[in-house]
């Protein structure tokens, strides 16, 4: 277990209903706040990324020549059909998996140059994950779950930061509850607090509200958005929810192995 994240090896998490992917219209949003960095490198820069899976007798080309640039503090939505490679992309960006070829840079640092321990170190200290299913550890309290990435990164001093993070998501009064003693929305808010506890350089959310009813999902996302804006976390969120996508700075669609702009001017 690292940063509260599951192993990516099986590739698939339970996928929400096939074919339910929503594609927000291109004109659905006019004001967007792309953060263009002048002089300093972008927060995330992906160039010519390929990811192929080699199965007996076939090569599955999931990502092909994919490019992506994300500015510091930007929140980008990624939409796309089930099976288009959204989770594969997030796993590569989060150093849970390696690309077949291509480069992934964070503020100018190239992930390709890192060995397995370097990647693990990067993941522990620089990435926060939020998944569709909260993946909280059932035997531990909300506070212990939130503090877990600090312990894994060797950054745990005391419970103060964990408490602050739970206060940020409105759950300080639930800090001693175990996941089974929290509602679905509360569990996902704990998962958000856990993702942010190490002040990551990049927050990756894979259908973070996919397991919640739409009202709860919208509320949880609005809270995430507020904190993300305030703390200026560079973030990428995969979502099937059109309302959530339109609240992001930019919407990109993953299709045929690469990204195209749905709203905003660039990928
Ligand atoms: N470890 C793996 N080995 C082989 N194929 C995989 C693996 N992980 C994912 N895939 C395949 O890659 C494609 C993209 O998967 P995924 O990234 O999970 O899509 P999405 O998140 O967009 O639904 C799918 O066809 C899936 O079956
Ligand atoms: Mg997925």
Low-confidence stretches: 1-37
- Biggest sheet descriptor: 6 strands, mixed
- CATH class assignment of the domain at 42-138 and 185-263: Alpha Beta
Structure summary, number of beta strands: 10
Assess the beta-strand content as a share of residues: 15-25%
Helical fraction equals 25-40%
Rg result: 18 Å
Query: Bound compounds, please?
Result: adenosine-5'-diphosphate, magnesium ion
Overall average pLDDT: 87
User: What class would the helix/strand composition place it in?
Assistant: alpha/beta
Order of helices and strands: EEEHEEHEHHHEHEHEE
Shape annotation: globular
Strand order of the largest sheet: 6-7-8-3-9-10
Q: Considering the protein shown, what is the CATH homologous superfamily of the domain at 42-138 and 185-263?
A: P-loop containing nucleotide triphosphate hydrolases
Shape-level CATH architecture of the domain at 42-138 and 185-263: 3-Layer(aba) Sandwich
What would you note in describing this structure?
The two termini are 32 Å apart. The longest helix has 18 residues, at 214-231. The protein has helices spanning 86-93, 116-126, 142-152, 160-168, 184-196, 214-231, 242-246; strands spanning 44-55, 58-70, 75-79, 101-106, 109-110, 127-130, 202-206, 234-238, 250-255, 258-263. With 267 residues, it is of the alpha/beta class. The protein has a domain at 42-138 and 185-263: 3-Layer(aba) Sandwich (Rossmann fold). The strands form 2 sheets. A 6-stranded mixed beta sheet has the order 6-7-8-3-9-10. The protein has a 4-stranded antiparallel beta sheet with strand order 2-1-4-5, covered by helices on one side. Adenosine-5'-diphosphate is lined by residues 11-12, 15, 53, 60, 62, 80, 82-88.
């Amino acid at each position: 277990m690292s940063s509260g994240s599951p192993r990516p090896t099986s590739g698939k998490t339970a996928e929400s209903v096939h074919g339910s992917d929503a594609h927000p219209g291109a004109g659905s949003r006019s004001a967007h706040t792309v953060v263009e960095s002048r002089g300093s490198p972008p927060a995330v820069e992906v160039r010519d990324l390929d990811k192929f899976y080699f199965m007996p007798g076939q090569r599955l080309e999931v990502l092909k020549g994919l490019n992506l640039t994300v500015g510091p503090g930007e929140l980008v939505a990624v939409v796309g059909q089930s099976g288009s490679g959204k989770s594969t992309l997030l796993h590569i960006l989060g150093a849970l998996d390696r690309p077949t070829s291509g480069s992934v840079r964070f503020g100018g640092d190239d992930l390709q140059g890192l060995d397995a321990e370097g990647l693990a170190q990067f993941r522990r200290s620089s990435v926060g994950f939020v998944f569709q299913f909260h993946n909280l550890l059932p035997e531990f309290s909300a506070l212990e779950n939130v503090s877990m990435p600090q312990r894994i990164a060797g950054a745990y001093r005391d419970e103060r930061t964990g408490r602050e993070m739970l206060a940020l998501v409105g759950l300080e009064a639930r800090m001693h509850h175990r996941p089974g003693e929290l509602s679905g929305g509360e569990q996902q808010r704990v998962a958000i607090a856990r993702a942010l506890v190490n002040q990551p350089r990049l927050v990756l959310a894979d259908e973070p509200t996919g397991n919640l009813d739409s009202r709860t999902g919208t509320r949880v996302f609005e809270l995430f958005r507020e904190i993300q804006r305030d703390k200026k976390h560079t973030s990428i969120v995969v979502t099937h929810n059109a309302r959530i996508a339109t609240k992001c700075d930019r919407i990109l669609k993953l299709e045929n192995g690469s990204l195209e702009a749905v709203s905003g001017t660039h990928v």
